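Please go through the sequence and fold tokens given here and tell me how the chain folds. Record follows.
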Amino acid sequence: MSVRAELAKSLDHRHKCLKGRLRRTLNLGGNSAEMAVYAQMREDNLRAAEIYGPGRFWGEINDTFADFVWAGALENLRTEYFNRRFAGPEPGSRQVWRALLWVYYQKLQEIDRDGFLASASDPREGGDGDQDLIDGRPMSLDFLQSVEEVYRLREAWALAGRTGLPQLIVELGAGYGRLANVCRRMLPDCTYLAESRALERLRAL
């Protein structure tokens, strides 16, 4: 998640906490059916023996949850702080992205007959915002996909009844050259022809 997205998320969290706290203090909107049920649950809890009451940690969390309830956050319960507080990272978080890269990396090792991934890394040229460190080396989804695609090309070559390794590859729509880079490293004796409007625009700069 970008710094801007994290900031927006933090501000939204603070806004809802403040909004809920003001609504609770001024009892604005406190007559709804949901608020009545919530108030009854609170009363039941407060009347219970001390052993059934929350400690400091849970008390603070409950106060925050109460602010969110009063701010109307129950409408989107699954994506709000109520659930995310304990349900793991945001779907678009860096933690999820890192886990995806790691699982893909582990899976690719099953077909990495040449041991390419044991020492290879993704170049930082062109930006490294989508990269993360895997086994201490920068990797990206583009890079890992390219490694798999090279092995699939080799499989297709063998299934076609050909021996050895491909000697010529022509890629139409090569983008910024992610596959070309990995092909030239994994198939150093192969001639690689890349056609892309993106490459043409780069040459024009």
Remarks:
- The two ends are 31 Å apart (CA to CA).
- The chain has two domains: 3-87, 94-204.
